[in-house]
Amino acid sequence: MRYEFIGVAQEDRLTLITINRPEVLNALHPPAHHELAAAFDAFQADPNQWVAIVTGAGERAFCAGNDLKFRAAAGRQAMPESGFGGLTSRFDLEKPVLAAVNGIALGGGFELALACDLIVADERAQFALPEVRVGLAALAGGLHRLPREVGLKTAMGIVLTGRRVDVAEGRRLGFVNEVAPEGTSLDIARRWAAEILQAGPLAVRATKQVIMRGLDEQGLNEALGRQKDYPAVVAMYGSGDALEGPRAFSEKRPPRWQGELSGAVTGRDLSHDHAPQLKENPQ
């Protein structure tokens, strides 16, 4: 697909998605939303792509949210079903997505970053959900994700005032994983991605699915009881990687991950007894 408002590049197993509207601080209008949705669709479907990074073009902004000037001129237009930026309502993506926040992340831009699994932010970055200041509400997931990450009262203090949160506060509150020196957020995000890519890709997806689905279970007992039936867990134990990891560990060599099913362990009756056991810490 030819893109006009975003850039997409593949770096071995890594997909880099760049919002490319720096003239409007990478604010998104419907055509850009649909391009991002298509890019994430392609990433999700490609078995050779294991991790994605989303960032913004230029030095000032990751994403300034909705392009309100475009909306005022063109009126309301249809959004992709996968949500703001093609990601905020995409709940079936087990592959990890990282946000390299290279500047301001406001409104939907902050919501897009919160929908990612990790956030690396430039030391100049600022975050806000300022919708209340223009008579709107942050309905692309921010009002649900932020309280889950920083706690109810802290989130209320941010969203009811619409105030900006600098990167140091974001790190202290826990939604920023690492603060990057000026101009290096993408480099640091690539380093995080490289570390993830050293792990088994199906194990990474199973881990993400267990965490995300477990948050929706009624309690810890239910989460523990159902995790063996989660599709990504079944796929992990049904892969050759489930044998390759312990084999590589015992042979003292780097694993050669395939990220494919091979029937190593199959069925929905998995238990902890099926999991390969390591006799020592692989670290």
Tell me the series of helices and strands, N- to C-terminal: EEHEEHEEHEEHHEHEHHHHH
SS element count, helices:
11
Mean pLDDT: 91
Helix content: 25-40%
As a whole number of angstroms, the C-alpha radius of gyration is 20 Å
User: If strands are numbered along the chain, what order do they take across the biggest sheet?
Assistant: 1-2-3-5-7-10
Class of secondary structure makeup? alpha/beta
Proportion in β-strands: 5-15%
The total tally of domains equals: 2
Low-confidence regions: 262-283
- State the end-to-end CA separation: 42 Å
CATH topology of the largest domain, what is it called? 2-enoyl-CoA Hydratase, Chain A, domain 1
CATH superfamily of the largest domain: 2-enoyl-CoA Hydratase, Chain A, domain 1
Largest sheet: 6 strands, mixed
According to DSSP, the number of beta strands is 10
Q: In CATH terms, what is the architecture of the largest domain?
A: Alpha-Beta Complex
Multimeric organization: single chain
Could you say which overall geometry the principal axes of the C-alpha atoms support? Answer: globular
What is the CATH class of the largest domain? Answer: Alpha Beta
